């Protein structure tokens, strides 16, 4: 009887030991599943990284390469002095009251004569209202975006500085003219 009792106790002890080992076994299994899951996530992210490796670079090396602007880009304002009638519509529609228009009234012809026109690009928000509402189209937006200076007073452009076109616009227009004239010359032969 003592032998049976002792055998029963050892069986119970083995059962208890196995029962106590069960959480450890489940933890090992959970650890293995987590390891497989992490390896799968790392593999997926590595595959995404490799798929982006054969794409072309998007970065523009700025001083050496210039940004290609869109057709509707709002850059520096170009001003044509001869077209301006000093109506001051640009000043009224500007949210910053920015363009400074100096004019005098010529009494003999009863017209305004423009003396000075200036815009401070340090304050300008490039909204384009002045260009849109100008009745004579003497204002236009250029593709020029490099306006940085060391002195903020250099950003105050008068009518002479506003009248200058960016160099690449002049070169482009000249090349267009050359291409058109060469094209026409081909038909004249």
TrEMBL record:
Residues 75-104, 115-144 form the 4Fe-4S ferredoxin-type domain. The keyword Protein transport does not apply. Signal peptide: none annotated. SUPFAM superfamilies: 4Fe-4S ferredoxins (SSF54862). GO terms for cellular component: membrane. Keywords: 4Fe-4S, Chloroplast, Iron, Iron-sulfur, Membrane, Metal-binding, NAD, NADP, Plastid, Plastoquinone, Quinone, Repeat, Thylakoid, Translocase. Pfam families: Fer4_9. This is 4Fe-4S ferredoxin-type domain-containing protein. It comes from Lithocarpus litseifolius.
């Amino acid at each position: 009887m003592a032998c049976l009792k002792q055998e029963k106790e050892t069986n119970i002890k083995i059962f208890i030991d196995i029962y106590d080992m069960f959480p450890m076994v489940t933890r090992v299994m959970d650890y293995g599943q987590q390891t497989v899951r992490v390896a799968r996530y790392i593999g997926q992210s590595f595959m995404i990284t490799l798929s982006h490796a054969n794409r072309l670079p998007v970065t523009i090396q700025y001083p050496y390469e210039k940004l290609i602007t869109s057709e509707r880009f709002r850059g520096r304002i170009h001003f044509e002095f001869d077209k301006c009638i000093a109506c001051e519509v640009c000043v009224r529609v500007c949210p910053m009251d920015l363009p400074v228009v100096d004019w005098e009234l010529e009494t003999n012809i009863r017209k305004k004569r423009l003396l000075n026109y200036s815009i401070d690009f340090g304050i300008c928000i490039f909204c384009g209202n002045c260009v849109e509402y100008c009745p004579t189209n003497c204002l236009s937006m250029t593709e020029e975006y490099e306006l940085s200076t060391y002195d903020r007073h250099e950003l105050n452009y008068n009518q002479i500085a506003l009248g200058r076109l960016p160099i690449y616009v002049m070169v482009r227009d000249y090349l267009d003219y050359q291409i058109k004239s060469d094209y026409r010359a081909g038909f004249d032969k």
